User: Fold this.
Amino acid sequence: MSSDTSDDTESVQQRAQRQLIELAADLYDQLDAGDIPEISLPTRTKSNIEYDEDDHVWVYGDRTSSRSANSIRGARKLLKAVYTIEFLVDQLEEGRSSTLRELYYLSESWDNKEAQFNDQDESNQLIEDLEILSNVTREDFHMRPEESGATIMGPLLIREQTRRGERKIHCQEDVGEGGYQIPNNPDTLEFLDNDADFVLAVETGGMRDRLVENGFDEEYNALIVHLKGQPARATRRLTKRLHDELNIPVTVFTDGDPWSYRIYASVAYGSIKSAHLSEYLATPEAKFIGVQPEDIVEYNLPTDPLSDADVNALESELEDPRFQTDYWEEQINLQLDIGKKSEQQSLASYGLDFVTETYLPERLSEMGYL
Assistant:
């Protein structure tokens, strides 16, 4: 994510401060001119994302919505935005950071009760609004999520910036079985060396542990990234950097259900919620390994029946522009036909080594990675 800067030597922190101050100044100028202050934002809905042919990701379209002070509700939203901008500018000035959860609680101390947040969803959404308006990421605001716990394991040497200075870490030799924990802002990492042939981004912790225990990362020179369910932004950013900067192919390995397909979509195409960051977070070249609906049939995997919510989600994905490809339409329709879903761990029905000795090598060979 980038924006124009007034000075080629302007630091990331200085640019973030400037952009925030300019937002507040724009609201002030509207008031000073006798206008009712307002801001305009893209409508964050599935119907307002479109495919960017240049960057091959899904971004927001032209539909917008306004936040205006012409109503009490709108005025409160703008008031909260101004208070939050002041907090963020002060935080950057002091070189401090805070979590999204802390911001919600910090608002309890603001002198104007109308500026306090009703719940964390409200404060989270405001931070997203400020990202869009300022063209600066929340990481550059020094806003952190709660710890995601996502990790990476494999043949990668990095240089990490810490409060105690720089340190070099090999993500296989210098870490325990848990791997290297991905930092909140992976742009602070420098890639020094690697022997990786591909990234394998894995949904569940159980499967990630199975792959590490079986030595899959060593045998196949794989960088195993634990997505930990719906992946955090830091995880998606690191995955994109590994692909773009080191030219390492990215594959995604999830459960075989509609919610897991959305995990893949957030890695490859970007999420609807953060479509303004798709160029920064999404890896369009990422390939889905499975579990595929056709795997459920071919391997006769243990299954659960699709729930009504699963069926509705699959039907919704058929209308989702991110899934409108021949491959996904074929797989989703097959799953609706068989009425079943299956977990990654169901592959263990053929033994604990089946996933590393048979399933993944076969799939990776079919896809040209082995």
